[in-house]
Structure formats: C-alpha cells, structure tokens
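README, section 4: Worked example with a bound small molecule

Sections 1 through 3 covered apo chains. Here we extend the same pipeline to holo records, where the ligand is supplied as SMILES alongside the sequence. The molecule in this example is flavin-adenine dinucleotide. Nothing else about the input changes; the structure line simply encodes the ligand pose together with the chain.
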Amino acid sequence: MVQLSFWEKESFFAPQDIIIVGSGFVGLWSALQLKLKNPAYKITILERGIIPTGASTRNAGFSCFGSPGELIADAAEMGEEKMWQLVEMRYKGLLEIRKHFSDETIDYDACGGYECFTDQSSDWSDCIAKTDWLNEGLKVITGEENLFKTADEKISHFGFKGFDHLIENKLEAGLQPGKLVQALLQKIQGLGVQVLTGIEVKSYQNHYHGIELETAVSSVKGEGLKFTTQQLLLCTNAFTKQLFSSIDIIPNRGQVLITNPIDNLKIKGTFHFDKGYYYFRNVGNRLLLGGARNKAFEMENTNEMQTTGLIQEVLEQFIQQHLLPATTFTITDRWSGIMAMGTEKMPIVKSIGNNVFCCVRMSGMGVALAPIAAMEIAVLMNS
Ligand SMILES: Cc1cc2nc3c(=O)[nH]c(=O)nc-3n(C[C@H](O)[C@H](O)[C@H](O)COP(=O)(O)OP(=O)(O)OC[C@H]3O[C@@H](n4cnc5c(N)ncnc54)[C@H](O)[C@@H]3O)c2cc1C
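The generated complex, written as structure tokens:
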C-alpha cells in the first residue's frame, strides 16, 4: 500500500464531490459542464493512460452530424423521432465546441463534407428519393435550406475513380482531436478540476461517508490508491463493462492510416462511403483514411488497441483503387482506437446506482455528441 503523506491526503487525495473516471471527450466535457453549473464542486478525473487512451485522441476528427445514407439507415432502425433527436444533439454539440474554442486552437477546417456512391450502391436511389425530406428536417435544426445537394461534378475535380455520385453537406468540417482534448484539459484545469493520470479504477463501493474507489496505479506495484467521493461518473465508453458489467456496450475497433504529404492533393473535405464503413479526409496535404470494419466484424469487436494486416491492406487498396489511382504515396502512420456501440445508437446518460452515473456509448460520433451528453449528465447530477 502506498504511504501517503499528511499533505498529500489533504490535497491531491482529499475527498471529492465528484470523481469522473476517464478523460476522453466525455469525461472532459462533463467536468466542464459540471463546473459551469457549480464552480464550487471539487472534481477529480482519474485516467488510466498517461493521456486519454480510448477513442478521443485516435479518431478521424470529422466534425459531422450524419451523412444522408446514415440518417436514412438510422431512421429505419431507431425511428424518425430518435434519429432527429440524435442529429440535433450532434449539431448542437458542434456549436458548443466552437463556442468554447477558436478555430485556430483546434485546427477547425470548414471544408464541407460529402457522401460518395457508386451506381450500384443500394442506398443511392434511396438518398435521392429522400433528399427533400432530409433537407426539411435539417432546416429545422440548422436553419440551412437544401443542406444536402448532389455534387457529381466534383468527382473529377477530386480525382476519384469508381465513384459515380456525391452528395455534399457544406456544414461538415474537420478538426484536430488531439488539440481539442488538450484545449479541454487546459480549460478545466484552469477552472480547478484535478486530472490524475496513470490511475485505473478497479472497483467502487458505496459507504456511509461516500463512494470508495479501489485503483491500480501504473507506477506503483501492489495495491493502488483509495479515493472517496460523494458522486461518481463513469465516462469510460467502450471499457465500461469492466466497472459495470450489465451495460449495453459492444467495443468496436476502428483502424486508421495517413499518407505522406502529397503535392497538389486534390481531395479536400470530409468523405463517407459505403454506409460510413469508409471515411476519409485531407489533413493539410495528407490523406487520412479509416474504416473497413465490415471486412472483419467479429475480429473488430474488441478493445485491443492494435492494427491488423487484413484491415490495413484493405484500406491501402481502397486508396489505390478509388482515391489516388494515379499517385504514388506512402503510409506514414497507422493506428487504432476503440469505439462503443450497442443494441441502439443513443448515448447512455443515466444513474446506475446510488450516486453513481454514467455517460457512455457515443457510437462512433463522440466529437459532436460529447458536449451535449455531458450537459445532460451535469443536469442529472446537479438535480
Ligand atoms: C478510429 C476512430 C475514428 C473515429 N472518428 C470519429 C470522427 O471522425 N468523428 C466523431 O465524432 N467521432 C469519431 N470517433 C468516435 C469518437 O472518437 C468517440 O465517440 C469519442 O472519442 C468517445 O469519447 P469518450 O470520452 O466517450 O471515450 P474515450 O475517448 O474512449 O475515453 C474513455 C477513457 O476512459 C479511460 N478509462 C477506461 N476505463 C478506465 C478505468 N477503469 N480507470 C481509468 N480510466 C479508464 C480510457 O483510458 C479512456 O481514456 C472515432 C472513433 C475511432 C476509434
């Protein structure tokens, strides 16, 4: 057992009003929203990595709220009402990001987004048939007329091969997720939130004086440190089952790669293809591509953070075939991150025990969802 000094016990390890487990987007936004509700809250975030180690610094940085194909599929699966609810959450989340951080701070690039189709894509005719309906609903949320519009003329401009149609969304954008996490960390630390890293929460128990947390500390052998808090918030996304086994979460690995800088790269924007199974964007003059989970569903239902030859090869072939058919490129970086999916797409924002809450399952769109899910949990915890 670590021998803490009297001073340490009265400062770093003093009983807290709120402990948040996990310092990804959701943990960080939750700390911010809770502090905005009540600046006097004593809040500590416990993170097991040296930096957040899940999805928030390992994603593709799409600042998006749903491509036409995805929204149609969502409406069929979850019902129209919930689909629009989710779109509104995401759109408001993106506005919230820009309310707090300048474009320069997070490399926000208002580049516009596109969904790509082939003539054979089963969802192409459906998207065309439903564009007016989608645009009516989106106008209510965004205020924009005719947000989704066909842009087939840009296919040759981008240099694509094998795509027949594009639908454009001028409100979609890209950002640098690592910088957004850094900016959030700085903001909440400035408000007095303590962030301790290298501490894994193993279990928690309610006692008469509060909730006690058992931890393992990466730098210490044997028993970890104990923490006490009045309220506990799990923001552990894909890893939540380890602390709360009955949660409806399936971990999903997402693999990504990025090319070397390419002279005169024609591709500019954020792009979705094949119901979102492929996503790509330019990052300056590099091309980032992720996805292909549908090539190995079972293998990718994992929280093992590594890349595999199979998926990486499919991704490289996709670039050669469709995106840079006449350009020599090399891959400079490959990585993976872990998302949380479940039997439905809505985030789980609720109480799961006596003074214990969770805000998890961002279903692969946490950049946009996290600020609003965090607002909802802050209201619940403050009530
Ligand atoms: C490859 C990929 C591409 C993506 N692309 C996009 C995109 O373009 N746009 C978009 O909106 N979304 C995207 N996403 C999804 C988005 O990144 C996630 O929805 C979002 O980051 C989830 O944030 P989170 O805070 O809930 O989870 P995470 O970022 O996973 O944070 C959870 C944290 O909890 C910590 N933790 C877990 N268990 C414990 C424990 N017991 N003790 C202490 N700490 C613990 C983890 O270390 C982790 O840091 C993508 C995801 C991936 C993987």
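What to look for in the output: The CA atoms of residues 106 and 179 lie 5 Å apart. The longest strand covers residues 331-341.

Section 5 describes how to batch many such records.
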